[in-house]
Write a structure and sequence with these properties.
The chain is an all-alpha fold and 66 residues long. 68% of the residues lie in helices and 0% in strands. The chain contains five helices and no strands.
């Protein structure tokens, strides 16, 4: 969800530009803290329930890239 909102994260992180991601995390994850259960935080931050599909897509893309 952060990449959807901010654009590709890895190039910025490789340059040491972490402020945009940190700001996104503060607004969408850290702000709700322990008040909201993990499932609710994931749903609120990403718009989708917690699941493995995003991780599988990421890993498949990395395998394709070589």
């Amino acid at each position: 969800a952060a990449a959807r909102d901010l654009g590709p994260l890895e190039p910025a992180m490789a340059r040491g530009e972490l402020a945009p991601l940190l700001g996104w995390l503060r607004a969408h994850v850290h702000a709700v803290g322990p008040v909201v259960p993990m499932q609710g935080r994931v749903q609120a931050a990403t718009g989708s329930p917690l699941g493995v599909a995003p991780l599988v897509r990421l890993l498949e893309a990395r395998v394709r890239e070589g």
